[in-house]
Design goal:
With 267 residues, the protein is mainly alpha-helical. The chain contains 9 helices and 4 strands. A two-stranded antiparallel sheet has the order 1-4. It has a two-stranded antiparallel sheet with strand order 2-3. Strand 2 and strand 3 (130-137) form a beta hairpin.
Length: 267
């Protein structure tokens, strides 16, 4: 958790999520606490909505309601019915992952600032000069080109067409480390709506699908989207910080393990 500045043996406060008296940027401050409380309430409401939606589709798969056609209700309990459910769920998800990125335009791929050295190590401020710590390893983020021209990237494809770890790193990223803003508000909103819909509709299906990662991504999307509003109140806020807070709040509302989830997300 703590990185020590090279050759000086003192704590580098820039690597901690705390209010640093030495002036390092931590992405939040005491004045942001009211905004954090609002975001936590919104994430709790979204978590409750997702719980209701997922419970509806999960219960419907187990016990189809009276409004379900008899032939469909009888087929859902068979092996072929479960197979068809999995095929339709996969087809729906794959279709949306192809069509949604095509609905949004391309942008020039951002470049990273000089926070990272040529060998990929993180440049840590040591007061008088920069030093490199070998324990800080930079994992590059992937910007998906999709159908864009060379040097450009698709915002939506970047969020949809890579693994969950890559998406989380993008949503948690600090904009100031890049040459321009990473994602626009319409893209983040569309991604949030898509993930809420697909995670709800496929819940309880006859295929492997969890709820931890969907809640984490939805909370991070909500937090980053809220960050656009927070910027209007306090221009110095960091949307990546709000994405992390939104993710923890969403998971806490869904699992009701607030302390444990908060520690996991901060880690």
């Amino acid at each position: 958790l703590v990185l020590y500045s090279a050759n000086e043996g003192r704590v580098d406060y820039a690597s901690l999520v705390i209010s640093d008296p030495n002036g390092s940027s931590t992405g939040w401050g005491v004045a942001d606490l009211p905004l954090v409380a609002v975001l936590a309430a919104l994430a709790g409401a979204l978590s409750a909505a997702y719980t209701v939606a997922a419970d509806f589709f999960g219960s419907w798969r187990r016990r189809p309601g009276a409004w379900t056609p008899r032939w469909l209700a009888s087929a859902m309990g068979t092996r072929w019915g479960m197979w068809l459910d999995a095929v339709l769920g996969a087809a729906l998800n794959a279709s949306m992952q192809v069509l949604l990125p095509a609905a949004f335009g391309c942008r020039a791929a951002p470049t990273t600032s000089n926070e990272y050295g040529p060998d990929g190590s993180l440049n840590v401020y040591t007061g008088r000069r920069r030093g490199l710590t070998s324990s800080a390893i930079y994992v590059p983020r992937t910007f998906v080109r999709y159908s864009c021209e060379p040097g450009d990237f698709s915002e939506m494809a970047t969020l949809m067409l890579q693994n969950e770890e890559g998406v989380v790193k993008h949503l948690f990223a600090r904009d100031e480390l890049y040459s321009e803003k990473l994602f626009t508000a319409p893209v983040v909103l569309a991604f949030l709506v898509y993930f809420f819909f697909i995670a709800s509709v496929t819940f309880g299906g006859a295929f492997p699908a969890g709820v931890f990662i969907p809640n984490m991504l939805m909370g991070a999307s909500l937090g980053r989207l809220f960050g656009f509003f927070a910027e209007q109140v306090s221009p110095s806020v960091n949307k990546g910080t709000y994405a992390l807070i939104g993710s923890a709040a969403m998971l806490s509302g869904f699992t009701r393990m607030t302390a444990a989830v908060t520690v996991i997300i901060i880690e």
